[in-house]
User: Which sequence fits this backbone?
């Protein structure tokens, strides 16, 4: 498996592992699903150096003497490559790099099939055991530490030239600070719930009895008669028959 790159102790970002990401082509209408994520690694990470060596070898094999020219074109087009410098991942609202990206490299990897989920014991979970798979996948949050196996491949088709990466396997490696705001605890804003002043007590012995009887609406003069040009049946609203059949 020399063509598979192992990225140890990477930071996980934008994970779509429990459920795949769904995208619909506006032209063809075809829906594409992808289990994907991004792995963020330091710039001296040995796995990233191995990835770049594999990338160069693949391009040389496919494009021969034109490899360097094609690689320069790919480098200039962010959408044609699955890797980049962290400073390229800019939040469109803040215009700053996303959490954890600055000063690092990242690799984007995806797969139309669920990637292998590796347990704490280093063994792959049975792919048919969906419950066990999702139990481990739910531990993967943006910012945690993971070990990831990826496989780069060359894109050369009607959509252009590029370098892509398959997500082969992933393993939770440890907790870290969640990206973004993470879990927000607002419990300090609340106190014990109290009954509103003047609320009528519930009727003892009958849990279905109303707590207080609503007063009848006041009447002002003669009742309003709807005009003759209203559609038939226009009057008091009826209870819809579809309640309870949702």
Assistant:
């Amino acid at each position: 498996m020399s063509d598979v790159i192992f990225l140890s102790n990477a930071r996980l970002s934008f994970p779509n592992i429990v459920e795949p990401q769904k995208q619909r082509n506006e032209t063809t209408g075809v829906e594409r699903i992808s289990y994907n994520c991004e792995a963020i690694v330091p710039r001296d990470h040995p796995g990233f150096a191995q990835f770049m060596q594999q990338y160069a070898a693949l391009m040389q094999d496919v494009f021969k003497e034109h490899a360097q020219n094609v690689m320069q074109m790919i480098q200039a087009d962010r959408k044609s490559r699955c890797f980049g410098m962290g400073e390229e991942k800019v939040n469109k609202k803040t215009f700053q790099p996303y959490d954890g990206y600055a000063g690092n490299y990242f690799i984007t990897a995806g797969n139309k099939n669920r990637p292998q989920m590796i347990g704490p014991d280093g063994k792959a979970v049975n792919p048919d055991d969906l419950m066990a798979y999702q139990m481990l996948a739910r531990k993967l949050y943006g910012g945690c530490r993971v070990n990831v196996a990826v496989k780069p491949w060359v894109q050369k088709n009607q959509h252009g030239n590029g370098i892509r990466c398959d997500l082969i396997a992933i393993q939770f490696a440890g907790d870290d600070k969640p990206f973004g705001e993470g879990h927000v605890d607002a419990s300090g804003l609340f106190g014990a719930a109290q009954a509103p002043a003047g609320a009528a007590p519930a009727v003892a012995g009958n849990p279905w009895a109303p707590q207080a009887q609503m007063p009848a609406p006041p009447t002002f003069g003669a009742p309003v008669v709807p005009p003759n040009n209203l559609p038939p049946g226009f009057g008091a609203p009826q209870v819809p028959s579809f309640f309870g059949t949702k």
